[in-house]
Amino acid sequence: MTILLTGATGYIGGAVLELLISQGTQVTAVVRSETAADKVRAKGAEAAIVDLSDVAALGRLLAAVDGAIHTASPGDTTSAAFDTAVIDAVLAEFGGTEKHYVHTSGVWIWGSQSRIVENSPLDPPAIVAWRLEQEQRLLESTVAATIVAPGIVYGEGGGIANIILDAPGAGTDAVTLIGDGAQCWGTVHVRDLAKLYVLALESNPGGRLIGASGSVAVADLYGAAHPGAKLMAEDPEATRSRLGAQFADALLLDQVVSEQVRSRDLGWRPTEASLQDELAAGYRTAGQPA
């Protein structure tokens, strides 16, 4: 089996690539440069230097593989157009076939809720509202598609968790929170998340799968990262000014992810250390070899 993977040099995609290769899967990694190509080849993948916005070129690659996982994202205002192009190619090449496709979303699309499962009402903040139209195209198509919606991804010293370490006042006796810190985030270790992507690719359950190992109050995360410091609430408007309105609105969401998500029904069992524990251990060095 040969799998096409986008984002193979990125945070999530890099973990997915390593897991696929460790299982003996042949991977064609779509990259943007020869430098990136060298990186994925060093891990055991084939490299294809293609612009993902080139629907025809991506389509030719999709036609030559047995399945695909899409984790790449520019993470900016071009994200909607970027995913539109990828989905256009997937609909054209995988529609009506038995080839499995795994797409990346995020838990933010459910907005603030006290018990989030996959069929909970969707209420995305502005930063991810564009996802719904594109995901609906997939869900209504004849593509054997599964959409993985990760929580806040952490591990290997990367991701949004670094905002906590670099909070205003870090290293002093008073640290500024995001909002009042009472809101909860659904979180997932990048290695556990990679397992869910591979499981979704293999089993093709269809629909959405939430990838979150648990939910934790933001203030508890700050307390773990800054032991002994006084945690100072921040007015939401000040948070929006500091981090940017749309990003802040997402981080201010109060999301409690239920343990009764479909991912668990598939046998997904997160095993990595919690974000709280990793922050308490130093995070940027947690889990790193000595």
TrEMBL record:
What is a GO molecular function of this protein? aldehyde dehydrogenase (NAD+) activity
Listed GO CC annotations: cytoplasm
Describe the location of the NAD(P)-binding domain by residue ranges: 7-158
This chain belongs to the protein called Nucleoside-diphosphate-sugar epimerase
Its organism's taxonomic lineage begins at: Bacteria, Bacillati, Actinomycetota, Actinomycetes, Mycobacteriales
The record's SUPFAM superfamilies line, in alphabetical order, gives: NAD(P)-binding Rossmann-fold domains
State the InterPro entries in the record. NAD(P)-bd_dom, NAD(P)-bd_dom_sf, NAD(P)-dependent_oxidoreduct
Pfam families in UniProt: NAD_binding_10
